[in-house]
Amino acid sequence: MTTDHDIQEPTPLAPGAAVDVSRPEPPPDRTTANTGVSQPDDEAIMRAWEGLPPDTMILAPAFGPPPMRGPDDVWALLVTAVDIIGDADPDRAGEVALFAGTWVSRQPPADSLYDGDLVVRLTHPADPMYPLSRDHATDVEMLLAYQGRWQRVGQWQGLDDSWPSVVAPTAAAVMGLHGDACEAAIWSETPPPLTSPPLIKWARGGIADLLDAGVVTAGEELVWDRRNVGVRHTARIRIDGSLVLADGRVYANPSGATTALGGNHQNGWGAFRRISDGRTLADLRAELQARRGQ
Fold first, then answer.
1. Which helix (H) or strand (E) holds 271?
2. Do the Cβ atoms of 100 and 267 come closer than 8 Å?
3. Measured between alpha carbons, how far is 245 from 150 in angstroms, rounded to an integer?
4. Which residue did the predictor score with more confidence, 100 or 187?
5. Which of 59, 108, 225, 270 could serve as 53's disulfide partner, Cβ 3.0–4.6 Å?
6. Please, what's the b/e burial string for 1-19 (b: 16 or more CB within 10 A of its CB; e: otherwise)?
7. Residues in a beta bridge with 234
8. What is the pTM of this model?
């Protein structure tokens, strides 16, 4: 029987998450006039290169003017990925390397299925005395699904079209803190299983909810393709609702797994796909939400 530690799929990409692989040839790129930093010259290429869902909008690096309002038929922009350059590159430390999101049409419940999701809402400036044209400015509200409520974790007024770079560091900090707190809280209650599945569920919410509803089953395999590093990450759903990676690391939340694998902050629900049918975890939780009539 295949174990959690030897998940493999026939693919030209290297399997697993904890091994170094040779980077492929870089994608077609462009060099910005201001920074000299190479970037993919097409948004679709960068989405595929970063392993992001196809409906993701990349706000930084900019491929065009960012939206200043949400469309009429959407509630908010779900933050799918954010990466801030650290001190390892002192010349670029603090620079926003990636900020991306996906429009969400309806406000989901801030329950265990969505706990940890981070969104931004773009609205007309509330201050009538704002000096610039109101069409060229936006108020930004950042909300986190946490403990059953959408809680405000950031608010900015009267930002211009540089708003993605202004709010991205806060998004990175919030996603990082929530992910660390979530994993630490769960592990403090029950030590992480090392070799065999536990007899009771320790992973609260998230994939455990999908298991309880029969939307997924224990043992199903997931994959996340990341062309930028030439790696196919694999994971398996355990009976307790956690994800175990090919190298044996265990995470209670898919976003914790993608963040650990990618080195930046990722919403793992849109990244991981079920191998059997190609559906993302986001699709599967939306199915469960529809079943619940929410």
1. none
2. no
3. 30
4. 100
5. 270
6. eeebeebeeeeebebbbee
7. 223
8. 0.80
